[in-house]
Specification:
By secondary structure, the chain is an alpha/beta fold. It folds into 4 domains: 11-145, no CATH class; 181-238, no CATH class; 245-371, no CATH class; 391-539, no CATH class. Helix content is 46%, strand content 8%. It has helices at 9-12, 20-27, 80-97, 120-132, 181-184, 189-198, 202-225, 229-238, 246-254, 278-289, 296-313, 326-341, 354-365, 374-384, 391-400, 418-421, 427-437, 443-452, 460-472, 484-503, 512-515, 525-539, and strands at 2-3, 15-19, 32-33, 38-39, 54-57, 60-65, 134-135, 138-139, 147-148, 259-262, 270-272, 323-325, 406-408, 411-413, 482-483. The strands form 5 sheets. Strands 1-5-6-2-9 form a 5-stranded mixed beta sheet. Strands 11-10-12 form a 3-stranded mixed beta sheet. Pathway: Glycan biosynthesis; glycogen metabolism.
């Protein structure tokens, strides 16, 4: 088990250095009790707090390097800037969460591949910060360890299980390739492909396919070393690569009360509301993403990893987002690149390095972005599916005052049995509203519903007017379904009349000018929407109420 960290490295030398996955194997055998039905610790990674401890295992002194230094087949490990960022984040986390006596031990493992070419200077700068005693605002003390080479754990051996064999129903000759394997190892890809399609022998095709896969692996590694990230992502997707810690990252989102959807924007999405195994998640990603874009499958894996970390450290960035729609977030990031490019062609998101993708994600998630037009703000918020505080409560209150429910994008949210079957604050109601809103294709149209239903940041004036009218005039209620599309069109028509009267501009179908106006103030979107709502309310019948001082008997 772990020993006190207030000893010096020299007191416990020589030390064995293990990857954290070997510590997982050791922990797996703790607390196993067949009588109590205890199976030991699950095969989950050991976090950076666990790897900061010094262990005695089978009489040996062991330290582990954090999971950020694990060798990975996924290309994120090839971005040294992302590695440095992960190191800084891990140190910040350790600084905040370390509660044991003594100092935590953070083992930094620098491999030869980390310091090749252009990667050398960033790593050198990081090591210089270590030497100075501070990195990312965390004070550190650098020391060297005397260690032995890595040794495998001597774990208990399980009894061998006799396995049944399946006897083939074909001759051995039919299972042998008809090609000379050695002859085709160095053939060109074109020749291998031609032979693959020409031959009928399945064994030969299997061997040729392996050669093609090996060639693709070489392309994957070479593109990574040259930082050709679009090529890397394409090769990784064709090889169906899976990033480490994908399942724990999704679980991190779930424990914060959010759901995750995987799939492309505008196509079928799969909602994840319970923890899933990595294999199941892999099947979902590749089945829903690859048919519409090969590189999307691995890009969404990147985002899941980043989002899992961000929501654990900055959950406020996801406020108002009931579902974390990965495909929609990709759409928001692409739109952000268009905004930055102006009149020039935007950057291709697939060509960005993983560290740049992470920074772009953080920029998009910022609730207050300066320098954006109102149109761009609405489009970004719409793509993120972000709703304001108390949004679903406001929708409930609107439903209480409209017997025919709410219409949006051709989808009807009825008053009954919604109000009788649910409560205002339960998750099922919020999910029902969210499911209704997903019928809106355009993010800026989605935003108009937010303005009508309590947008604290952009629609305070509109909602206050509607709330005051309904509160002070209980005789008023919506007689017809609250058709959001119609209200937006009415508000837009009124906006066009003012533009024609005041600016002399002609009628136009494009609503960009309308959505590019401020949310509040004179001739704002709130004022036009408020007027549209008022007109619809006043067109309804006024029902008499008891003890009305204005009524004449």
């Amino acid at each position: 088990g772990p020993i006190e960290n207030d000893v010096t490295p020299q007191q416990v030398e020589p030390i064995q250095i293990w990857p954290q996955k070997e510590l997982v194997k050791a922990y797996r055998f703790l607390a196993i009790n067949k009588k109590l039905g205890l199976s030991g610790r699950p095969d989950r990674p050991v976090g950076c707090i666990g790897t900061c401890k010094i262990y005695r295992i089978l009489g040996k002194t062991v330290v582990c390097y954090p999971i950020v230094f694990d060798l990975s087949d996924f290309y994120l490990s090839q971005d040294v800037m992302l590695l440095i960022d992960d190191i800084k984040n891990a140190l910040q986390f350790i600084k905040q969460c370390w509660k044991m006596p003594g100092r935590p031990l953070f083992l930094a493992l620098i491999r030869e591949d980390n310091i090749k070419g252009s990667r050398f200077n960033p790593i050198l700068d990081m090591l210089a910060s270590f030497k100075k005693g501070s990195i990312g605002g965390v004070k550190v003390h650098v020391d060297r360890l005397q260690f032995k080479s890595f040794e495998e754990l001597e774990l208990p051996k399980h009894s061998k299980v006799k396995r049944q064999t399946s006897t083939p129903n074909v001759s051995d000759l039919e299972q042998q390739p008809e090609i000379d394997i050695e002859e085709w190892i160095n053939k060109s890809t074109v020749e291998i492909l031609q032979k693959f399609y020409d031959c009928d022998c399945l064994a030969s095709q299997a061997q040729l396919a392996k050669n093609l896969k090996d060639e693709l692996e070489r392309i994957y590694r070479r593109a990574g070393s040259r930082k050709l990230w679009s090529v890397v992502r394409l090769a990784a997707s064709l090889l169906t690569k899976l990033v480490d810690s994908l399942a724990p990252s999704i679980t991190s989102v779930l424990v914060h009360g959010k759901q995750v959807t995987l799939g492309l924007f505008g196509h079928e999405e799969i909602v994840i509301s319970n923890p899933l195994s990595p294999g199941v998640i892999k099947d979902i990603i590749y089945s829903k993403c690859s048919p519409h874009g090969e590189r999307e499958a691995v890009l969404q894996q990147e985002l899941v990893i980043h989002i899992g970390w961000i929501i654990s450290n900055n959950p406020e960035l996801f406020s108002g987002m009931l579902k974390i729609r990965i495909g929609w977030i990709v759409q928001a990031m692409k739109h952000e690149l268009k905004i930055r490019a102006g009149d020039l062609p935007p950057q291709d998101i697939y060509q960005l390095s993983p560290s740049d993708v992470k920074q772009l994600l953080l920029d998009v998630l910022q609730p207050q972005q300066t320098g954006r037009s109102w149109l761009n703000k609405r489009q970004i918020d719409g793509s993120l599916n972000r709703t304001p505080l108390g949004f679903y409560d406001r929708v409930w209150q609107i439903l209480e005052r409209t017997s025919n429910g709410i219409m949006v994008g051709g989808k009807h949210l009825p008053q009954q049995p919604t109000l009788s079957d649910m409560t205002m604050y339960e998750m099922n109601f919020s999910l029902l509203v969210e499911d209704t809103l997903k019928n809106i294709v355009l993010p800026d149209v989605f935003y108009s519903l937010q303005m009508m239903s309590s947008n604290t940041m952009n629609c305070v004036q509109l909602l206050m007017v509607v709330a005051i009218i309904l509160e002070r005039n209980p005789e008023l209620e919506f007689q017809e379904p609250v058709d959001l599309d119609r209200l937006v069109k009415d508000a837009f028509a009124d906006f066009q009349k003012d533009c024609s009267r005041l600016e002399g501009s002609g009628k136009q179908e494009n609503m960009d000018a309308f959505y590019n106006t401020p949310a509040l103030g004179k001739r704002s979107t709130s004022s036009y929407l408020t007027k549209a709502v008022m007109i619809q309310l006043l067109q309804g019948e006024v029902k008499p109420i008891k003890d009305d001082p204005c009524s004449v008997s």
